[in-house]
Amino acid sequence: MILITGHVILTPEHRDRMIALGAEHSARSRGEAGCVAHHCHVDVEDAMRLVFVEEWKSIDAVRAHFAVPASAAFVAEMRALSPQPPVIRIYAAEDITAKLMG
């Protein structure tokens, strides 16, 4: 499983547009092959930070996601609207819930 976390800093003048872009991107991404989950959230401790949490079945699914033209357009628009570049972290993960929770 591949987990992706990321965030982008919102600006007051573009906040609504950036949140709408995030929601649209997450909804579109959930329809892609290999996407298990893709959500964006406004940070409850910093209302000017939009957080992304994604789960993918494989690195190949992530590569395909990054190759989608709409994904590149999303990143480009977010980058243009934010005062800082978006942050992304990609992890290979193992679900150990059953081991810990029984």
Word description of this protein:
The protein has 102 residues and is an alpha+beta fold. The chain has a single domain (2-101), classed as Alpha-Beta Plaits. Helices cover 42% and strands 29% of the residues. It contains four helices and four strands; from the N terminus they run βαββααβα. The chain has helices at residues 15-30, 59-67, 69-81, 97-101, and strands at residues 2-9, 35-42, 49-56, 87-92. It has a four-stranded antiparallel sheet. A hairpin with a 6-residue loop joins strand 2 (35-42) and strand 3 (49-56). Helix 1 (15-30) packs antiparallel against helix 3. The longest helix has 16 residues, at 15-30. The mean pLDDT is 97.
Task: Itemize the secondary structure elements and their pairings.
Blueprint: E1 2-9, H1 15-30, E2 35-42, E3 49-56, H2 59-67, H3 69-81, E4 87-92, H4 97-101
Helix pairs in contact: 1-3
